């Protein structure tokens, strides 16, 4: 009897159990929704704090919001330097809007004076930030409506190679003009695509059109160093501090000084940029203009190495800038005076300079940033040795030919530049030049960029082959340059 009653009760109450399960599911869903809403509200609140502190330039107070797990990956100094550089580039943070929540936290659309970014944070215990990151907004590679003009005659295999590599680049929406040279034993082939500005229909002129070459300047700085070594005025292993004011403590770690060689091959241990470069009023479109020699010396007075120089490769604009300053001190001339006297005049590079004359300004290509907007020319301040030079295609051809030549006034200095001074699993360096030595296809190269320009120089001494590309847009040309160089190497090897 009890069994029947129990069975009947269970049978009669089955809908009640289903209803109970449904209610529990609804409550669980509501709990998840509430939890997600809670995460979103906490993230929104912390994002506002980050934005406000960002606009105040308070990197340390933002770093103080991070969790211990984040700090284990990122030091306070690197965080502050990176955020300062980003702030100088992007300007004031105007607003942010929710984009999406995902398993890595919450993403926002972040609007800055100088563009748009994706801002991502992940909130941990006690509202600490486990993750904080800015990333570029990916854009589809939009193509121009019409075919961009060029002067490629399309007559032989080299012409077709250039067209194959360059056409996809120049058809991108935010590119403008390109000047390209292929240097061989048989002579020089020049190609121009696009225009000197988006309002102009003029192809870049190999002789007259000027571009900012950015970090390819470092090869010039290294050549000046090599010439100074060959002259006997310095030794490549001289301590840097020997050529700086006595008020600056010894640059080095314990008994290991930073040498001239370390500055030229990026093993000095110096950061990419000095921590004090983006303090004060900074124009994000011309971020180095305000940084003068007194600011550089002030930074070096308090800089402390954390490991012995020469141990690791770490690319440093600061190091190249200091090298330029050292050379000024050694010769008692400005960096530009050294450039003109020791490189440009001997090589007849009449259109390579730092300070622009009226005719230079007239012939200068207009540079465009990643968003296709025109950019001002950069003033590198005290870091001229890292990226201040402006040049034309023909002048850069002459510079590259000097690197290929076994004779001439700069041959000894060029050979010194091309000797390996540092080698690891991931990097091989000469002085100023990066070295790629894969499978008997060795070549030297360097790429550069400023706010609205990109550049590439690469050469193979054994095959007497050189490639130069100059562009007046902030779309990288180094991949195209290396592709052309390697394909030419293979053609010449067959």
Output the keywords.
single chain, 18 strands, 2 domains, Nuclear Transport Factor 2, Chain: A, about 500 residues, globular, disordered N terminus, Beta-lactamase, alpha+beta, 4-stranded antiparallel sheet, 6-stranded antiparallel sheet
Examine the coordinates and then state which fold CATH places here, giving the name of the CATH topology of the largest domain: Beta-lactamase
Which parts are unreliable, with pLDDT below 50 for 5 consecutive residues or more?
1-12
Indicate how many domains the architecture comprises.
2
CATH architectural label of the largest domain: 3-Layer(aba) Sandwich
Please identify the top-level CATH class of the largest domain.
Answer: Alpha Beta
- End-to-end distance: 98 Å
| Sheet with most strands: strand arrangement | 6-5-18-17-16-15
| Helix/strand/pairing category | alpha+beta
State the share of residues found in helices, binned by percent: 25-40%
Largest sheet: 6 strands, antiparallel
Total strands: the figure is: 18
Report the portion of residues in β strands.
Answer: 15-25%
Question: What is the averaged pLDDT score?
Answer: 90
Categorize the overall geometry.
globular
Helical region count?
16
Fourth-tier CATH superfamily name of the largest domain: DD-peptidase/beta-lactamase superfamily
Q: What would you report as the Rg, rounded to the nearest angstrom? A: 28 Å
Pfam family, one: Beta-lactamase
Protein name: Beta-lactamase
